[in-house]
Amino acid sequence: MIILHHCVSARSFRPLWLLEELGLPYELRMWPFPPRAMAREFLSENPLGTVPLLVDGATRMSESAGICQYLAARHSSGGLDVAVDDPAFGAYLNWLHMSDATLTFPQTLVLRYTYFETGERLQPQVASDYARWFLARLRSVEEALQSAEFLCAGRFTAADVAVGYALLLAEHLGLDQQFPPAVSAYWARLKQRPAYQQALQIQHQAALDQGVPTTPAPDIRP
Ligand SMILES: N[C@@H](CCC(=O)N[C@@H](CS)C(=O)NCC(=O)O)C(=O)O
To answer: 178: which DSSP letter?
Structure first.
């Protein structure tokens, strides 16, 4: 049985959403955010203290985009994966990696220096610079969606889940108001997917059942 360690609407939402898309059985273990401070016993599971942590037998993974690639390759019978001999393979990998390194990381600086830090450690200039940086990087997403419904391979893949989470985070930060038109329409389409909505409901219920706060991680304020 796959085990996913998760905090509400943190980057571990990527594998949660993908597990729902794939219809795979899994166990969801909820943690208060950030586990490093709120549940120090989690450090014995993942010394980094970060989520996601996915455990699949002897395999333990802590990178959300890598987990999406792993689940799609290993558990989707090709449905949400792009094969190495597919012409879209390179684009697929590029979107998967871009989803966190380019589209999520700058937003974590906005989050940290607008909300998570306090007093003189708040850095409004850093936050606005990296918000602009993120919005500029959306240009590549906007371009890809000019003539396609999804990012690559002419169909919905794990890359759409991975990039979709970056858009979810942007929504929590209020940056979605500045999405360019094709990105905005794409995000509206992704949110209609039953597996996305199911993942939102499942994490909420699991938080209640496991006695963890239901506030999404990006909305927590110190
Ligand atoms: N690159 C990793 C980043 C993982 C990460 O930093 N997760 C955040 C939640 S979005 C976390 O657990 N933060 C808690 C902490 O840093 O203590 C990924 O894509 O999964």
So the answer is: G
